[in-house]
Design a protein that fits this description.
This protein is mainly α. The protein has a domain of 142 residues: Up-down Bundle (Ferritin), CATH 1.20.1260. It is built from five helices and three strands. A hairpin with a 5-residue loop joins strand 1 and strand 2. The longest helix has 31 residues. It starts with a helix and ends with a strand.
């Protein structure tokens, strides 16, 4: 009996000093699923856009779309892991049908999509995740938002110079956060701060 009371006291002490985990709202789980589906479709769409760019003779743009597709795949998996870590369920869905336009039209569509995620979708999702104290969601949303910002910049530059001869450039994608660049950082990823050894070359 003495040991039983000692155990109860010990449990009470642990409960008193251990902060309660914030309850994650269904809204954050829904936002994670929306982001998971959005990034899945983006990866799928950019692969199709890359094939169109190859057909149109824009090797640089094709490589850019493939690098962005890789990054979106990384975001997709990160969102999925966050859903599971927060006790949610990954919802079933079907990928959208993709009907590529010209390479210029595809770049314009990509800029529109990335700008929406950068300026509207991820800021709204981050606001709710921070309110919930959902660190896993905050982290994956921040990483995705930073990458989308860079994607939008790269797409705009590619569109602005589409009619000029663009040199074939190698792209590098961070396997941790999906940050995409044409020049490897010296030591650490500028987004997630992980070692540069986590970068993958995508051509």
């Amino acid at each position: 009996m003495k040991n039983y009371f000692i155990a109860l006291i010990g449990a009470a002490v642990i409960a008193a000093v251990t902060p309660a985990q914030a309850e994650v709202s269904q809204q954050t789980l829904d936002n994670l699923n929306a982001a998971f589906q959005g990034e899945s479709n983006a990866a799928h769409r950019y692969e199709a856009f890359a094939k169109q760019a190859d057909a149109d003779g824009y090797a640089y743009v094709a490589h850019l779309f493939r690098a962005a597709s890789k990054a979106e795949s990384i975001h997709r998996e990160a969102h999925k892991q966050a859903i599971l870590a927060l006790g949610g369920k990954v919802q079933d869905f079907k990928l959208d049908e993709v009907k590529p336009g010209t390479t210029a039209e595809n770049l314009q569509a990509a800029i529109k999509g990335e700008s929406y995620e950068r300026d509207t979708m991820y800021p709204e999702f981050l606001k709710q995740a921070r309110k919930d104290g959902a660190k896993e969601a905050v982290r994956t949303f921040v990483y995705a938002q930073k990458a989308e910002k860079e994607h939008a910049r790269l797409y705009q530059a590619a569109l602005d110079n589409l009619d000029s001869k663009q040199a074939n450039v190698t792209f590098y994608v961070c396997k941790i956060c999906g940050f995409t660049t044409t020049a490897l950082p010296d030591k650490n990823c500028p987004s997630c701060r992980e070692p540069v050894s986590n970068y993958e070359e995508v051509g």
